[in-house]
Amino acid sequence: MHSEDEDAKVMAAIESGMVAIRRRQTRRALAREAGNGVDPALFDVVDAVEGAELQRRPVTVTDVAAALGVAQPRASKLVAAAVEAGLVRREADQSDGRRALLVRTEAGRELCEQVHRARQARFARATAGWTARERATFAQLLGRFVDGLTDPGAERH
User: Fold this and answer.
1) Are 34 and 47 spatial neighbours (Cβ–Cβ below 8 Å)?
2) Confidence category of residue 33, pLDDT binned at 50, 70, 90
3) Residue 59 in contact with residue 53, Cβ under 8 Å?
């Protein structure tokens, strides 16, 4: 049985670890690590579009602004630069012709794959001394943790 003091120490340790991860694992840092030479700000746009695509949601400049935590005019400039770089393209929304949807181009998808490979290689190095069971347990617990952050009512067992 844990005391409130022990629980507070555990939560402080989790917070400390998460802050360290957040500082080291930004989109931009990981994009730079992939060594692809793409402006990290443009990768932020492609990453936001990928995130929406994975959730099977249409994505607009407004969605990119929200995902990146920037104002709409800044997001518009970033999206325009990503379009010019050939990483995303605009498509007309079939349900509302006034609205443009963003999708990754082949180059944008390849960029995401390069970054995924670099991230996964980094995670493999970080867990190199772990057993397969430890990695699987960590993946399961991390998934539950993320679910708990995004859905306060998530199952907790």
Assistant:
1) no
2) low
3) yes
